[in-house]
Each structure stands twice: as C-alpha cells, then as structure tokens.
Write a structure and sequence with these properties.
mainly alpha, Cytochrome Bc1 Complex, Chain D, domain 2
C-alpha cells in the first residue's frame, strides 16, 4: 500500500508539472524530481526520497539507468524503489543527461542527522565500508561508490536494510549491488546498521 501511495504522489507531481509547462506554452520535460526529492533537492523523509543536491553525476546517472532498465526498483518488497522505477522508466538518454546536469547545479547542503547509535561500534564496522566509500565517506568514482557523508541518515538505513534483506542488489545485472549485499550482511543486524550510520553522521560534512 505504501508503495502505491508513493507512486501516486510522484505521478500526481509529474502531471502537475506537465500541466504547468503546457499552460506556460513551454516544452514538457522530465524535470519532476523535486516533487519527491524537495524543491532544494535535500530529500524528503516522508516518501524516503534521498538528497540529490551534491550527489555525484556518475552515480546519479548510473542509478537512473538502473531504475529505467528494471535493474533496481522491481523487487516486490522494495517499496521506495517500486515508486521510483516508473518515474525513470520513461526517461530517454537525453532526459537523463538533462536531469544530471540540472541536479548538478543545485547547492549542496549536508543533511542533518536524525538518529543516534553507538558511534564507536559504528566506526569499527565502517572500516569495511571505507575500502570503497573512503575513510571520510567522500566516495570513490573508481569503485562506483558514492559519498555517504552528508546523505540523509534515514535513507542510508533503509538502503542498508534493503541490501541486507536482498530487496536491493539481487538483480543478476546489478554487480555493484551484489557487492553491497555482501557488505551489508557484515553489519550483522539492525543495530549494526544504525551504529554504522551514526558514525557516518560524524564524517566530513563539506563538499
């Protein structure tokens, strides 16, 4: 039910954007990300839409392509992914280029922490994550690992839960997701996820 509500919210936002564009006699485009991700691109916990402002262009592009191809967002238990997948399914390569460039112009502001956990335990767990995501959570394009520092902590928790449960990263064409599934399982349990995200909240918060 939640995924249906999320999809309706996004689709309604898209329809509104199209109507406004048509009324203004402007070409209808696919710039409707702000409907769920916020007008400033800082994320929206209510619909589990993460911060896009400041996200690496190569990572955003790859995820949009994965959603479009059904590599991500098709598992029946991935409620947020199921809401996002139809939004990306209609995108052309030109639309993705345009969205990536548009999002790249937004001002980056790190997300405010919303959870607490055992930071010391999280730091120990993070050492595995640091191999790809960097000691300061800065990300690494070589490993296609996005920055974690400054991302919405509630989003990181949800995605780690999804990886751990196999709701994300199980598609045979998602090699990077499969790697993340293995890494997520090393966190052990729900508390391990909260602890490592609590530690990520302490990492460098500038871009």
């Amino acid at each position: 039910m939640r995924s249906i509500v999320l999809s309706v919210l996004c689709l309604v936002g898209f329809a509104s954007t199209s109507v406004l564009a048509a009324d203004a006699r402007e070409p209808v485009n696919d710039r409707y990300c702000t409907t769920c991700h916020g007008t400033d691109g800082r994320g929206n916990e209510g619909v589990q839409a993460p911060r896009l402002a400041g996200m690496e262009d190569w990572y955003l592009r790859h995820q949009l392509e994965n959603f479009r191809a059904g590599v991500r967002g098709t598992h029946p238990q991935d409620e947020e992914g199921l809401a996002m997948q139809p939004m990306a399914a209609k995108l052309s390569d030109a639309s993705i280029d345009d969205i990536v460039g548009w999002v790249g112009s937004w001002t980056y502001v790190p997300a405010e922490p919303t959870l607490t956990g055992d930071v010391n335990a999280g730091q120990r767990l993070y050492q595995t994550c640091a191999t790809c995501h960097g000691q300061n959570g800065e990300g690494n394009a070589t490993f296609n690992a996005p920055a974690l520092a400054g991302q919405n902590d509630w989003y990181l928790v949800t995605q780690l839960q999804n990886f751990m449960a196999g709701y994300r990263g199980a598609h045979p064409q998602d090699a990077r997701g499969a790697q993340m599934r293995t890494m997520a399982k090393s966190l052990g349990n729900e508390q391990g996820i909260i602890n490592v995200v609590a530690f990520i909240n302490t990492l460098g918060r500038s871009k």
